[in-house]
What does this fold into?
Amino acid sequence: MDRILLRRAVDEAFTVTGAGTPPWPDPHAGADVRDEEYSRCLRPEKYRILAARAEAWTQGLCRLGLAAVEPAADPAALWRRAPETGVGSAVRLRPVRADAVPLVFGFSAIGGVPRTGVVVGAGEPATTLGVLPDCGCDACDDGSANLLEVVDELVAAVVTGTFVHIDAGRGRTILAVGDDWSASNWDDARTPVEEAVAEARAGRSPYDVVRGQAWG
It folds into this structure.
């Protein structure tokens, strides 16, 4: 897969899909967070930039012939476990390559504004890889650049086959994206994180694993 060509296709699509959703800087750069910011989101509509980026990925992947898009009549049915944020709409990108796993974008509402939150998932049914923003309050806002970077990293990891999600039950999970990983409640597991990731990528994991091949 030509990653430069892929990124160029996504960025070109984003000039159109993101035309009405401008980026914004970190509002707390050099400033303290105020107490009242924790309980409010004055401009939830700004987070539509996330859906615009998801749409750019959708268009770019389809334009390059790597996937076909499938709108979901029942968004909740696409997921292993329904995302806690709830999704009002969703699309599934089905890769042309048979041994690759589908990519799912779910769209939720922040402050009642549709398509301001994005859930990135992989698999069929989909496992949640990321929920953006993880908190939509003004206090946690550090600008749009970091949010878009996370979307790009998660989607690229699915498309290039470099992600693995491990579920050992009882809330014990690992998400590895390339050489990076994050874990929840893994202190109770017998296997160190790095070893668990290596076993999963080698097809020897005793746990529930979601992973796939590169799309092209």
